[in-house]
Write a structure and sequence with these properties.
Blueprint (H helix, E strand, L loop, with lengths): L11 H4 L20 H10 L5 E4 L6 E2 L15 E4 L3 E10 L16 E8 L6 E5 L12 E6 L10 E6 L17
Antiparallel strand pairs: 1-2, 1-3, 4-5, 4-7, 5-6, 7-8
Length: 180
């Protein structure tokens, strides 16, 4: 007789074990806490200020911020203002509705999403777009943040990014640390 997958002699029928199923309902509560760099970043949004964190070793500017550089592993604490304008690095149109974190209501679909490299940052920020037609979206398009009226220090203080056309071209807004 040849060994079975468990390494014991016998046929598979002789060693099959029925799984035990225990029906239970679990109530799980999650609490998310932002890192110190993310907490500062979110506080800045409350003042329409977007800041990246810069690595003192390689100079890379991260947005959203993180405590350590992904390239040289140095702890980072040098903050630099970045603009509320940028460039689409990647995009998609999502046809599956999700729950809006601020309202608790389903977000209408379809909606555009993009990885946006803000002017002054080296990494990208994932955010909503004002366009849903793939024919109107492309890598390299210029965009500008559209801020909510009520700012609470949350990622969705920026409602979405609008595609900037020649007729809507405007100077970027860069709020410095004095607004902190």
């Amino acid at each position: 007789m040849s060994p079975n997958p468990a390494g014991r002699a016998g046929s598979a029928a002789e060693t099959t074990v029925e799984p035990v199923t225990i029906p239970i309902t679990m109530d799980l509560t999650w609490r998310y806490v932002a890192s110190a760099p993310m907490t500062r970043f979110l506080a800045g949004l409350r003042h329409r200020r977007i800041e990246a964190i810069r690595c003192g070793g390689c100079g890379r500017r991260y947005l959203p911020p993180r405590p350590f550089c992904g390239r040289c592993r140095q702890r980072m604490d040098d903050w630099v203002p970045v603009a509320d304008t940028g460039t689409i690095a990647a995009w998609t149109v999502v046809n599956q509705p999700i729950i809006d974190g601020r309202t608790g209501e389903p977000r209408p679909s379809p909606y555009g999403m993009a990885l946006i490299r803000l002017d002054g940052a080296d990494t990208t920020l994932n955010h909503y777009l004002d366009r849903t037609d793939p024919a109107e979206l492309a890598i390299g398009l210029r965009v500008r943040a559209v801020w909510r009226d009520e700012l609470i220090g949350a990622m969705d203080d920026i409602s979405h990014f609008e595609v900037v056309t020649d007729s809507t071209e405007a100077e970027p807004t860069i709020a410095g640390p004095e607004a902190h």
